[in-house]
């Protein structure tokens, strides 16, 4: 490292301040280490090191880049720090550039930074306009932007008359609520290019729509892909259409497959002229994205990539809000050019834990439409639906391929109203919804301490059911009936499925990991309470009835981060325990002692609950407000509830603060897609 002597004092002061903030828990250790590493690579000014610390810190919070405009105008807000914390760090770095262009000029001349228009020497930092990146994220954003632009922008030929014919069969009724049929529009739009994005809240019919889209593709593709030119189209002839279903987690994948099978089954009765049961049978199981791409242990590389693309014509990805930037880049890389990608997800949900908020970025125009006149004309011809005036405004190629579904079919009641209020940032309406539900679907409790809420964990809430007692009693009953040895009527597997279903109907979600209202504190308290009630007996780490969540992919045992299983006796080996995972209609199990990276899952984070729904969902907020406690988190927690939702707030005002707080992730994806 070469440092000008005049800067040495500032460096020392800055490093000391970074260390102090690290000790105080304001910075992660990696951020300081990264800045030091950058300093070893060339001449480094204190402002450059400061920018590196912040870039690394923001990466840890899910941002893919550092926006120089924010760095110049509101660094404190960007970090969620107090004025004193920021002032101390700033003072230790000496004079800082005054505005974004001064920052840009400073970074432009730094040896460790590659300004994208210049010669590339493989520097670790990338400067693209007013955004500073770690190289990996710039590469991933560029990959996603290029692929999205190409896929959305290149129109596929569509036989409009035939599409209209089939869409009228697949969607025979006008929407009850009036207005255009956005589901029908979504199908028409998705046919037109190799990218279709369908977003909407829970129960708005994303899966219902995509099942019809598959039927439409099936009905219209046969003539094009497989038959000789000029040959007559024959329903069912598109047997070779290779369709893959995927989702970020095993649970979400299993749910997708189940819902699509169910929707196709229903549809088959209405459209007997299409061999939809055959289509469903050929589709195969839905897979996790990791498994689809061929994850390999100890590497970030996948078996499938640009050089070895996936063998698919249509790829449907559900719960796309959970797909992080790096995964989306890998997925788009591995997708052959001719294949169609359909992304389904709720744009308002929490983004992935890892960096990026890809679906949210892609859906920025979804609410307002942004359709061009030619898209509107195509939609009218292909689906008979007129786009209302307010949605007309050409917002670019991506907007033409994005459709938001707006009418929830199973979420219109109090839970839906609450979710809407939270999403709109309306705390007063959220409070009114929570307090005004006389039917008992919603409850709002403010327990002083966790012990006041533990009865809920045991027996649920009156009228709402739930609680962990039920599945634990089923385990006991299985013991009494000798089911563990497979001797019970219906067999061991049926019993396991019943126990798993009972467990899956109820869950306690936490906004945070630490503290008495966090995952760790509540899990311990619940375990103790259940043990005191005689419902479980803890003997060491593993015990019968212990629910666990896998915290790391393990290729040896085939379990993945986020998978949830229940510990039950092994029928083949008396005295030993296995962990059973539900996979839709089937069950998979692993010897408990083979699972190394797991944690108890009576309580789990809202983040990890994405892709799952529970009949009765309880969400506990902590006592203190914070930046992580944001609207998206509260919305995601509420929308995990199918029939009943209970909110626990030891301090009621925390709810208002959380609803007011928004998670904004810095990203350059939109700019890169626009090609600016
Ligand atoms: N146009 C429609 N007509 C009749 N029923 C519908 C329609 N659209 C959706 N439904 C029904 O509404 C329910 C919810 O639909 P679906 O599961 O497709 O929603 P989703 O958006 O995929 O939900 P989630 O976000 O929970 O996955 C289903 O029972 C579905 O059959």
Can you describe this structure?
The protein is of the alpha/beta class and 676 residues long. It is 43% helix and 14% strand. The chain is built from 28 helices and 20 strands. The chain has a 6-stranded parallel β-sheet with strand order 7-6-8-9-5-10. Strands 11-20-19-12-18 form a 5-stranded parallel β-sheet. Strands 16-15-14-13-17 form a 5-stranded antiparallel β-sheet. It starts with a helix and ends with a helix. Mean pLDDT is 90; it is low at 223-238. Bound molecules: adenosine-5'-triphosphate. Adenosine-5'-triphosphate binds at residues 183, 200, 202-208, 259, 409-410. Its EC number is 5.6.2.3. InterPro entries: AAA+_ATPase, Coronavir_polyprotein_1ab, P-loop_NTPase, RecD, RecD_N, RecD_N_sf, UvrD-like_helicase_C.
Compact summary:
One of its GO terms (cellular component) is exodeoxyribonuclease V complex. The protein is of the alpha/beta class and 676 residues long.
């Amino acid at each position: 490292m070469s440092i000008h002597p005049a800067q040495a004092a500032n460096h020392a002061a800055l490093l000391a301040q970074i260390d102090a903030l690290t000790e105080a828990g304001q910075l992660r250790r990696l951020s300081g280490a990264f800045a030091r590493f950058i300093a070893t690579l060339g001449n480094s000014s204190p402002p450059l090191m400061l920018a590196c610390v912040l870039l690394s810190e923001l990466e840890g919070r899910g941002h893919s880049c550092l926006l120089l405009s924010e760095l110049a105008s509101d660094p404190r807000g960007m970090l969620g720090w107090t004025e004193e914390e920021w002032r101390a760090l700033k003072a230790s770095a000496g004079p800082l550039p005054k505005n974004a262009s001064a920052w840009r000029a400073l970074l432009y001349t730094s040896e460790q930074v590659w300004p994208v228009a210049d010669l590339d020497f493989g520097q670790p930092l990338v400067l693209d306009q007013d955004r500073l990146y770690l190289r990996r994220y710039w590469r991933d954003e560029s990959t996603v932007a290029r692929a999205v632009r190409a896929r959305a922008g290149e129109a596929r030929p569509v036989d409009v008359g035939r599409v209209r014919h089939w869409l009228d069969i697949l969607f025979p009724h006008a929407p009850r609520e009036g207005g255009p049929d956005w589901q029908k529009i979504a199908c028409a739009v998705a046919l037109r290019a190799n990218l279709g994005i369908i977003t909407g809240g829970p129960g708005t019919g994303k899966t219902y729509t995509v099942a019809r889209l598959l039927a439409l593709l099936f009905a219209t593709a046969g003539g094009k892909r497989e038959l000789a030119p000029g040959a007559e189209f024959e329903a069912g002839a598109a047997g070779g259409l290779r369709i893959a279903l995927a989702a970020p987690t095993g649970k979400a994948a299993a749910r997708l497959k189940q819902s699509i099978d169910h929707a196709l089954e229903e549809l088959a009765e209405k459209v007997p002229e299409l061999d939809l049961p055959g289509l469903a049978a050929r589709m195969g199981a839905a897979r996790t994205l990791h498994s689809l791409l061929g994850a390999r242990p100890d590497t970030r590389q996948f078996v499938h990539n640009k050089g070895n693309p996936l063998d698919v014509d249509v790829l449907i990805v559900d719960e796309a809000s959970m797909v992080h930037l790096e995964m989306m880049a890998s997925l788009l890389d591995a997708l052959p050019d001719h294949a169609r990608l359909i992304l389904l997800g709720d744009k308002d949900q929490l983004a992935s834990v890892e960096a990026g908020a890809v679906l949210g970025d892609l859906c920025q125009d979804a609410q307002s439409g942004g359709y061009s006149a030619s898209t509107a004309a195509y939609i009218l011809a292909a689906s008979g639906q007129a786009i209302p005036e307010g949605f007309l405004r050409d917002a670019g190629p991506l907007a033409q391929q994005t459709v938001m579904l707006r009418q929830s079919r199973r979420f219109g009641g109090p839970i839906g109203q609450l979710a809407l209020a939270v999403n709109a940032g309306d705390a007063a309406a959220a409070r009114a919804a929570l307090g005004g539900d006389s039917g008992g679907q919603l409850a709002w409790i403010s327990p002083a301490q966790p012990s006041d809420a533990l009865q809920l964990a045991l027996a649920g809430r009156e009228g709402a059911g739930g609680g962990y007692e039920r599945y634990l009693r089923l385990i006991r009953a299985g013991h009494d009936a000798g089911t563990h040895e497979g001797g019970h009527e219906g067999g061991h597997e049926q019993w396991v499925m019943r126990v798993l279903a009972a467990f899956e109907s109820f869950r306690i979600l936490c906004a945070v990991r630490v503290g008495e209202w966090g995952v760790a504190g509540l899990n311990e308290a619940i375990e103790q309470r259940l043990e005191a009630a005689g419902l479980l007996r803890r003997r060491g780490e593993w015990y019968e009835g212990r629910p666990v969540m896998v915290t790391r992919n393990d290729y040896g045992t085939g379990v993945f981060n986020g998978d949830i299983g229940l510990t039950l006796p092994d029928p083949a080996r008396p005295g030993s325990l296995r962990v059973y995972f539900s996979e839709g209609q089937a069950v998979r199990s692993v010897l408990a002692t083979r699972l190394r990276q797991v944690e108890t899952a009576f309580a789990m984070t809202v983040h990890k609950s994405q892709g799952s729904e529970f009949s009765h969902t309880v969400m506990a907020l902590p006592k203190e407000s914070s930046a992580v406690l944001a609207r998206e988190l509260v919305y995601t927690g509420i929308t995990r509830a199918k029939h009943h939702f209970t909110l626990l707030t030891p301090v009621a005002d925390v709810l208002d603060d959380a609803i007011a707080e928004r998670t904004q992730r810095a990203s350059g994806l939109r700019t890169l897609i626009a090609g600016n």
